[in-house]
Design brief:
The chain has 2 domains: 3-63, no CATH class; 86-195, Threonyl-tRNA Synthetase, Chain A, domain 2 (2-Layer Sandwich), CATH 3.30.980. A 4-stranded antiparallel β-sheet has the order 1-2-4-3, with helices on one face. The chain is built from 8 helices and 4 strands; from the N terminus they run H-H-H-H-H-H-H-E-E-H-E-E. Helices cover 47% and strands 16% of the residues. It is globular and about 45 Å long. The protein has 204 residues and is of the alpha+beta class.
Length: 204
């Protein structure tokens, strides 16, 4: 965990998302997401909030960047698990795999920002992730659109990495006036293992 409870994976995934979607603006954002801070894990809360504030002024690029960052965060979080554990999970029955996927999602959310907490629910293929204290959604003025699609993309990607077909969408968001951020999940079943590393799930 970096300074002020900001996780390295969150910061690095946003940096990579900006590099992918708006490479011409990367130098500007590196005033806060500087390479030294990225390497040392010393990007604090104030620089991250500044980055998110400026990104919200970039129009559609905000969603594109934060969703891309969610994909990277999921991939890097799963890659950080031991190879043996990943191998074992991918060979479990789909129901058990889904439960493990949610555990990984909880870890991803809470390691992104120490002030965030995640509550999980999943039963018979339908579930939700409730995020309290989303780092993306603590805005002064209410937003018209949800600001936390990062989490929905991360959820869908984690499930895919465990060979599960799922959809995830934000149904409530603190930034638009709800009490917390809520990602609804629909798990449709297993995907062939050979396809899991090459296909992304749709995220609304």
């Amino acid at each position: 965990m970096a300074e002020a409870g900001i996780g390295r994976v969150l910061v690095a995934s946003l940096h990579q998302g900006i590099a992918d979607i708006m490479p011409s603006r990367l130098e500007f954002y590196e005033n806060w997401l500087n390479p030294t801070g990225l390497r040392n894990g010393t990007i604090g809360l104030a620089p991250l909030l500044a980055v998110l504030s400026f990104l919200r002024r970039e129009g559609d690029a905000y969603d594109l960047i934060t969703q891309r960052a969610g994909e990277y965060a999921a991939e890097w979080t799963v890659a950080g698990m031991s190879p043996v554990k990943r191998w074992l999970i991918r060979r479990m029955p789909s129901g058990m795999r889904a439960q493990y996927a949610l555990k990984v999602v909880r870890r991803l959310v809470q390691r992104a920002y120490a002030g965030s907490r995640a509550h999980m629910r999943l039963r018979r293929g339908a579930g939700s992730v409730t995020v309290r204290g989303s780092i993306f959604c603590g805005v002064r003025d209410r937003s018209v659109e949800p600001l936390c699609r990062y989490y929905a993309t991360a959820v869908a990607r984690v499930f895919l990495l465990f060979n599960l077909q799922a959809q995830a969408r934000v149904t409530e968001c603190r930034a638009v006036g709800d009490a917390a951020c809520l990602v609804a999940i629909a798990v449709h079943g297993a995907r062939p293992a050979r396809d899991a590393s090459h296909q992304l799930l749709g995220v609304e």
